[in-house]
Design a protein that fits this description.
Largest sheet: 5 strands, antiparallel
Number of strands: 11
Keywords: DNA-binding, Transcription, Transcription regulation
InterPro entries: CBASS_pafABC_assoc_protein, DeoR_HTH, HTH_11, PafC-like, WH-like_DNA-bd_sf, WH_DNA-bd_sf, WYL_dom
Distance between the termini: 69 Å
GO molecular function: DNA binding; DNA-binding transcription factor activity
Pfam family, one: HTH_11
CATH class of the largest domain: Mainly Beta
Protein name: Putative DNA-binding transcriptional regulator YafY
Strand content: 25-35%
Number of helices: 11
Radius of gyration: 25 Å
Strand order of the largest sheet: 6-5-4-3-7
Helix content: 40-55%
Shape: globular
Structural class: alpha+beta
Amino acid sequence: MNRIDRLTAILTHLQSKRTVRASELAARFEVSLRTIYRDVRSLEESGVPVIGEAGQGYSLVEGYRLPPIMFSREEALAMLVAEKLMEKALGEQTSKHFNNALIKIKAVLKSTEKDLLVEVQDTIKVLKSSSSPNMNQSSKAFQFMLQAISDKNVVATTYVTFDPEQITERELEPVGMFHSYEQWYLMAFCRMRRDYRTFRLDRFSKFRFTDISYSTAKHPSLQSYLDKVAGEQKLHQIVLEVPDGSLKYLANSKYNNGFVSEEKVGERTVMTFMNSSIEGFVRWVISLGDMVVIKKPTILRVRLSELLNEIKQMQE
């Protein structure tokens, strides 16, 4: 990226947030802090009202805006792909808001880019995933919790736990949401348990706003919470041996089960996983049938034998 393009991109980035740190700009554009300082000084000299606050970062004077910036051909195509993905990933309700935002963005495209999007529109498809039956419920909860986080509003919910399956009434202070293992999760402070908990969005059967507000200042950030959970979680190292002909059947699902690495040994591949749930992992292994051999840990082999016996007894 040449300097002129970088200066324009820095100005666009400054408009995207209230305050932007120099280190953030340096990381994004892969340049030194000294280069960022020089670039910002150049923007100031050209008349851009940049405000620099020690220890805070850079911001633009309130009300200053650039005229619409044109997108490149590659950026326009990337936007189309993102639109296709979001239609399925977000569900109907949130996808509608996303598409409305994209229409406004597309309005500033050049005629050639608009024609290009029309031409390739039907050449890209995103098929529904196996989790699509829960998508509508997740989407409604996603939009609701997003508003709760924005308004800092305590929500009253009815939640169905997984194991054992129980219906509980809870008042939550939503902190953040994340996507993992093909599901959306909410991290929130549970007033009933007086502690932070993680909830699957599709397991909320009811949710409503209360008249109670809360302060986010007393809560940890979503990232710090996830880091803490990862540090406390007991992970099991699991090693499987897979014949080469069976590797293709694990290609997608391995990443949802803690895949770490693999090593070719003759006509077989040794795969290493790190997973916190022996029970969940062994049920995935059962679905693979005779395509894998458990090398370790012993506890996984023992639980597999127990589960197979339980299945056999159920069929007798």
